[in-house]
Amino acid sequence: MKIGVCIFWGMAALAAGAAEGGVARVSVDAANPQWTISKYLTGMHFVYAFERDSLYADERIADWMRRARVGIIRWPGGTAVQNYHWDALNGIAFLEDSWDPAYSAAPAPPGDYMDLDEYIAFCRKIGCDPMVGVNIRSGKEYDRKEDSLDEARRLIRHCVDNGYNVKHWYIGNECYKGWNANSYADYIDLYAEVLKSVDPEITIIGDWKFGPEAKNNFEGTLAIARRSKHIDVMEVHEKWGNQWGLAATGGKTLADWQAEPGIYGGKLARYIEAYFADQKAAGKNVRLGFNEWGAEIAGDGATPFHVALVKADYLIEMFRHPIYSACDWNLNMGPGKSKILITSNDGRELAGLSPAAHVFEMCGQAQEGRALPMASSDPVVYGFAAAGPEEGVIQVYLLNKRSDAVEVELAIAGAAPGGAGLEMETFSAPGELTKTILASPAAVGEALSLRLEPLSFNRLVLRQATQTP
Q1: Does residue 68 share a domain with residue 198?
Q2: Residue 275: in which H helix or E strand, if any?
Q3: How far apart are CA 72 and CA 41, in angstroms?
Q4: What is the pLDDT of residues 361-386, one digit of tens each?
Q5: Which of 12-21, 46-55, 96-105, 409-418 is least confident?
Q6: CA–CA dist 138, 210 (Å, integer)
Q7: CATH of the domain at 401
Q8: Is the pLDDT score of 297 beyond 70?
Q9: Which of 5, 22, 14, 64 is nearest to 433 (CA)?
Q10: Among residues 331, 336, 231, 332, which one has the least CA distance to residue 284?
Q11: How far apart are CA 78 and CA 177, in angstroms?
Q12: What is the C-alpha separation between 221 and 234, in angstroms, rounded?
């Protein structure tokens, strides 16, 4: 039986099973471009206490970020923002707060961490926008509210006076620990007013979660976005395979992921759509971000290549919805299989890049293009498509989650035939990227026959008749 599935916005339920005749039929509507894809979807994190000066002296990191078109980097990290003090850094993330009356820790050497000025210098080096966090926990925890507000004021004043052009500001991090939704929304506004008194033209970001569902976190996300007067972006933190998010009732192993028709079995897409529907009903337009997303896979058989495929699956969801920003967790800390930078000498030297680096390079090329509707007949062969950003270019991304190769018939409606050819990039085991040139379609709407390698992520680039490679 043929299973017809619209996978572009996740509006149709995906049924399990293979496509009719073993062939996945994929269609792209190039005549119906949608929103402009954000330039902030291949964003990264710097967890300031782990970013050694000697590591970032290696030009391979900056070179890769340019290739991946990293458009934004979040600093000083996630939980690290809860106890950092930007002008009195101790280089100790997560544990020691110098505002604690019992604090007695010795600070780390300055060369072992990345301060604000070094961070801005790196952003400028690769041409990305900064996203800076504001510590709201210390003021609440140690009853120093006015000191905390003054710290935020001095931080943005430092950035403005030095011409740092910091336009993205996130208020706290994972404040479902210590706040309820309404009180956190009020804190967002309290700090936003201080920040905007210095620079009114900034973007204010708050965060919450979609899962675990048993804790009604999604309802909290909706409440914050509705209540706050100053919030511009509501960011959600989710990591596939991690029990504290949507994955609490979902998959954790490679086999679990392969069986999912869409990340979290399509659950993430449904929550994204429900969020936008709620904003519309509320008469608001608070954008949605995923500024701390990631992937872990349980089981001894999982490799960094497999984690890279899960990250590709996650990015597909970011690109086929109108998401404002997304920052991968993590570049340089956390579980080894999930990191992009492979380091040695206690994080001071770069040994190489993980396979996931290729996935970000591939997806980054679609940023600032126009999203195109896509449909697939196979529930575990899907992706997204974009027109541009180069004029006359159509890009199609396809993930094959099966352990066997899949034959695909790809039809692109509205594409001009007789172009300069079809380029295909394939990311496959053990984590390599290969490129081939295929014949271009001879007529409008003619299907292309493709073979997707087992467990692979693929990018096809069609340059239409007026284009040259």
Answers
A1: yes
A2: helix 267-282
A3: 8
A4: 999 999 999 999 999 999 999 999 99
A5: 12-21
A6: 25
A7: 2.60.40.1180
A8: yes
A9: 64
A10: 231
A11: 13
A12: 8
pTM of the complete model: 0.93
Q: How many domains does the chain have?
A: 2
CA-CA distance, 431 to 65, in Å (whole number)?
18
* pLDDT value of residue 214: 85
Least confident of 101-105, 280-284, 357-361, 446-450: 446-450
Q: Give the C-alpha distances (Å, rounded to integers) separating 184 from 166, 179, 230, 288, 289.
A: 23, 6, 12, 17, 17
Half-sphere exposure for 101 (CA within 13 Å, toward CB): 4
Contact 138, 149 (CB under 8 A): no
How far is Cα 330 from Cα 351, in angstroms, rounded to an integer?
Answer: 17
- Please give the C-alpha separations between residue 114 and each of 110, 177, 179, 366, 455, in angstroms, as whole numbers: 8, 26, 29, 30, 37
CB 409 within 8 A of CB 424: no
Nearest to 35 by CA among 321, 318, 272, 312: 321
Question: Do 407 and 312 share a structural domain?
Answer: no
Query: For residues 404 and 451, is the Cβ–Cβ distance under 8 A?
Result: no
| Cβ(84)–Cβ(137) below 8 Å | no
Which domain, by its residues, includes 124?
A: 44-364
Residue 158 is encoded by which pair of tokens?
């430092």
